[in-house]
Amino acid sequence: ALDVHWNGFMQKVLDDVGPLAGQTLKSSFIDSYEVGNQDWTANFRQEFIKRRGYDPLKYLATYTGCTVQSPQVTARFLWDMRRTIADLFADNYYGHFAELCREHGLASDVEPYTGPYESLQCGQPEDTVMGEFWTGSQGDPSVKLASSVAHIYGKTLVGAESFTAGEDNAHWQWDPYAQKVLGDQMFCWGVNRYYFHRYA
After folding, report:
1. CA distance linking residue 101 with residue 191, whole number of Å
2. Residue 15 contacts residue 95 (beta carbons within 8 Å)
3. How far from 88 is each of 17, 132, 163, CA to CA, in Å?
4. Residue 173: how many CB atoms within 10 A of its CB?
5. pLDDT(106) > 90
6. What's the alpha-carbon Rg for the chain, to the nearest Å?
7. pTM over 0.85
8. What integer best gives the mean pLDDT of the chain?
9. Mind spelling out the 3-state secondary structure of 45-113?
10. For the CA atoms of 198, 19, 2, 79, what is the dihedral angle to 10 degrees?
11. 19/16 Cα distance (integer angstroms)
């Protein structure tokens, strides 16, 4: 799916910019995950067997709220399902995205949170791990998550989609000084690169 999206969108941009890829166009970006849970793909059963060592088919009744064998067995299976989904996101989405970016001379920037995966694992291969914060807020936990990922993996950049505004805070109602306290707080939480949201 990522290859289809890359070829249908990013590759067209890269074809247009030609030798400016990696020069003027420096990175590609995955925003926060806002799609909902994922629980099955065409190859999921085979991937589950390969990664967990058993067939998930006889445990699928757990998806309807049923207990299979015992509460303990059911809980272990559901853990294995979530772990497999997380590993597949890390390998096939975030990891593959970082590979595609590097193949084309780009850095990879991501906001790896709020999805059905493990955020620390998904942020590991990226060049810049990011959070976000909104104008009129007290900050967002995603910023501390991003700075934690960067710290754990020895990354020097912590980005944030910065000063994003909803309808009640948009339309140029805030001057820069009115947002300074929030900006300073985000520096204290670990951000050292602001990405100004274009709708701010």
Report:
1. 23
2. no
3. 31, 24, 32
4. 11
5. yes
6. 20
7. yes
8. 93
9. HHHHHHHHCCCCHHHHHHHHCCCCCCHHHHHHHHHHHHHHHHHHHHHHHHHHHHHHHHHCCCEEEECCC
10. -80
11. 9
Q: Is 53 exposed, middle or buried (0-12, 13-18, 19+ CB in 10 A)?
A: exposed
Contact 143, 190 (CB under 8 A): yes
CB 189 within 8 A of CB 147: yes
Q: Give residue 191's identity as a one-letter amino acid code.
A: V
Angstrom CA distances, 37 to 31, 72, 136, stand at: 16, 23, 29
Residues facing residue 184 across a β-bridge = none
Quick: pLDDT tens for 151-179: 999 999 999 999 998 888 888 888 889 99
For residue 161, give the H/E element and its range: strand 158-164
Contact criterion met (CB below 8 Å) for 191 and 160? yes
Q: How far apart are CA 115 and CA 82, in angstroms?
A: 11
Question: Which pLDDT does position 200 carry in this prediction?
Answer: 44
Q: Check pLDDT > 50 for residue 147.
A: yes
